[in-house]
Description:
Blueprint: E1 11-18, E2 21-28, E3 31-35, E4 38-41, E5 45-48, E6 53-56, H1 66-75, H2 89-93, E7 102-103, E8 111-112, E9 125-132, E10 135-140, E11 146-150, E12 157-158, E13 162-164, E14 184-185, E15 192-196, E16 199-203, E17 220-224, E18 228-231, H3 237-244, H4 265-278, E19 284-285, H5 289-297, H6 310-316, E20 348-354, E21 363-364, E22 375-378, E23 395-397, E24 406-408, E25 411-413
Parallel strand pairs: 9-12, 17-21, 20-24
Antiparallel strand pairs: 1-2, 3-4, 4-5, 5-6, 6-13, 7-8, 9-10, 10-11, 14-15, 15-18, 16-17, 18-25, 19-25, 20-22, 22-23
Amino acid sequence: xxxxxxxxxxxxxxxxxxxxxxxxxxxxxxxxxxxxxxxxxxxxxxxxxxxxxxxxxxxxxxxxxxxxxxxxxxxxxxxxxxxxxxxxxxxxxxxxxxxxxxxxxxxxxxxxxxxxxxxxxxxxxxxxxxxxxxxxxxxxxxxxxxxxxxxxxxxxxxxxxxxxxxxxxxxxxxxxxxxxxxxxxxxxxxxxxxxxxxxxxxxxxxxxxxxxxxxxxxxxxxxxxxxxxxxxxxxxxxxxxxxxxxxxxxxxxxxxxxxxxxxxxxxxxxxxxxxxxxxxxxxxxxxxxxxxxxxxxxxxxxxxxxxxxxxxxxxxxxxxxxxxxxxxxxxxxxxxxxxxxxxxxxxxxxxxxxxxxxxxxxxxxxxxxxxxxxxxxxxxxxxxxxxxxxxxxxxxxxxxxxxxxxxxxxxxxx
Length: 414
């Protein structure tokens, strides 16, 4: 066992089947809400209809110098797009409105003046792309001032990615529209599933990531070539009881809406076999480790799908700091861009793979080693520190192991 310490924007490529032929066109997907001229989409990106700029819904969430801010913006993959960049000072100024107020996360008594609440700026200023000598442009959302700061300055400045126009980039995550794109609900256990589209991502963590482990290297590109449905929450105690007729959870007093735990990998296989039999199918299973991390990230490259720091994690999951060391009913925290809850924390989640080393090159639909002594679980739990709850974190346990912070979620193949 590995040691641990105790909203689809914009315009996506859509294949529409007409008879026996397939045509490709651009279509708008997943509008989640509006605020004046701004539209937020289900993958957490925000379109300004006046300027035709698409913004990330939130900055990087922690202090950062100009060079790292530029790198963050250019490597951001929100919505599956690969053409994010650092905004200009003028573009940032276009988000300022002195008549609006927004609480600043980094200073208790300060407020920013952002034109829409759909974009959250967590501290006083944002870096701009312009430079002059050793200085770079910033824009202050507390006072509306254009400022030049040392590029090495890493206090109270954040990075907010932007992309130009609405046209889909050639390498973005493809999205295949069908009548079932809205999801699937199990008729037996009532579990809701969302469609996870095909696409590619970088699996693992960079050497600079805080709290990382060596088994998250090397980073490598993974392509998921087949879309699948993933359960929006961890399997609950009530769902387990409907299939198995018992409740193995150590914290059964938490109730039917809390995640089932105290189940081994082998127990989960029995549950899956019975559920498939009850519904006359063979489509339910555990996700592979690659499917899990791809779905967990939902286009992000940060430590958590919600950002980089503990505040971001607290919005997304139950962990050591906020859980009171107990499980909580599922679906109470902020979901990721693909509608998945409790990816970070609450309980660890079994995946299909045996534990093994990562490949050194690009792979498609990997399923891990063909044999081993321990199975992988992901996501961290109510008992863990923040670094154990990162998207890249891996844990391994024997397939017969049972713990009070170890559960699972299902996928369903199409």
